[in-house]
Amino acid sequence: QGRCLIQGGRATTTIAYRAGVLAADSQITFATTRFAQSSNKAKRLPNGALVAWAGDLLAGSRLMELLEKSGGKLTDKLLVKCEGADALYVYPDGRVMAVKGGEEGGSALLEGEFFAEGSGYVAALAAMKAGADAVRAIEIACELDTSSALPVVSVKLDTVQWKTPVKKRRTR
Predict the structure, then answer these.
(1) Which contiguous run of DSSP H or E holds residue 41?
(2) Alpha carbons 114 and 22: distance in angstroms, whole number
(3) E strands along 37-137, which residues?
(4) Fewest C-beta in 10 Å: which of 9, 79, 133, 159?
(5) In 9-135, at which residue ranges do the beta strands (DSSP E only) sit?
(6) Minimal CA–CA distance to 106: which of 5, 2, 31?
(7) What is the pLDDT of residues 126-147, one digit of tens each?
(8) Residue 80 burial (10 A CB sphere; 0-12, 13-18, 19+)
(9) Which residues pair with 98 in a beta bridge?
(10) Nearest to 120 by CA among 138, 132, 135, 101
(11) Cis amide leading into 151 (omega within 30)
């Protein structure tokens, strides 16, 4: 149902996607210290895609800046410049890509109904499995994850372009 690429709790923050909405907490954490609660980690790009990042503050900011300058186009060349940034990139049609910056980074198209990344991903995935939307999943993760905090920032796909994924029925 969901996926997380972060291993070992390196990325701080929580981001979640479900049903055309990409949401993130807004806390900045360095190691175990809460640094600030004012970062906008989720944005709409010029091409209508959505992106939210987790991980290193400077790398995440660089990823957002480079994506905005490229018109929202995600390339391997761009990702190499963003070591330490992990993100969810949502195409205008609703397809979701997991993104990892750096020389060893890359991107992978995900399949499923909902996704989460970052230090609070387990709480966010559990909340969405129980029926929460992306914003509520982040709120719940903020209650449980010390590297995530309110307020939640969210962006929504253009409803004209976005389509709900079709659920496959089980046959017995």
Answers:
(1) none
(2) 10
(3) 42-44, 50-55, 85-90, 96-100, 106-110, 114-118
(4) 159
(5) 14-18, 21-24, 28-30, 33-36, 42-44, 50-55, 85-90, 96-100, 106-110, 114-118
(6) 5
(7) 999 999 999 999 999 999 998 8
(8) middle
(9) 88, 108
(10) 138
(11) yes
Give the position of tokens 């996926």.
Answer: 3
Contacts of 146 (CB under 8 A, 6+ apart): 29, 32
Residue 146 near residue 33, CB atoms below 8 Å: no
**28 and 156 Cβ atoms separated by less than 8 Å:** no
**What does the block give as tokens for 72?**
């929202």
Strand partners of residue 15: 24, 117
Tokens of 149: 């905090």
pTM for this one? 0.87
First to last CA, the chain: 21
Beta carbons of 53 and 60 less than 8 angstroms apart: yes
89: its two tokens:
């990139």
Mean pLDDT for 29-37 is 70
